[in-house]
Amino acid sequence: QVQLVESGGGLVQAGGSLRLSCAASGRHFSINAMAWYRQAPGKQRELVATITSGGTTNYAGTVEGRFTISRDNAKNTVYLQMNSLKPEDTAVYYCNANIVVVTTRYNYWGQGTQVLVSS
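and the corresponding C-alpha cells:
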C-alpha cells in the first residue's frame, strides 16, 4: 500500500507565498509522473501542474509564471511553490502520482490540503 501525505496549506494574504509538499510512502514502489490538482468550492477539480520522473514540467495557464512544481526523487516527494497568490487560487489542493507497485501501475491521490487566499 502506498500513501501520499500532503502538507503546507494554510491562510495567506493575496500576493503572498506558500509551499506545498507531498510525500509518498510505502514498499516496493516507483513513481512516474506526479501532479498537483485543485478544486475550488462549486467547481470541478482542475490540473495545476505536472512533472515527469525526468523533471519535465507543465503548468495550467492560470498559474504559469507564479507556481513552480519540483520533485525530490530520493525523498519520493513533490513540491508546489506558489508565489503571487490570488484569491482565485483558493481551493483544496491535491497531490497525484502515477505509481508502479511491483509490476502494476496505480493512480494515487493525497487527502488534500486547503489553501485560502484572502484579498
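(Above: one complete record from the training split.) The radius of gyration is 14 Å.
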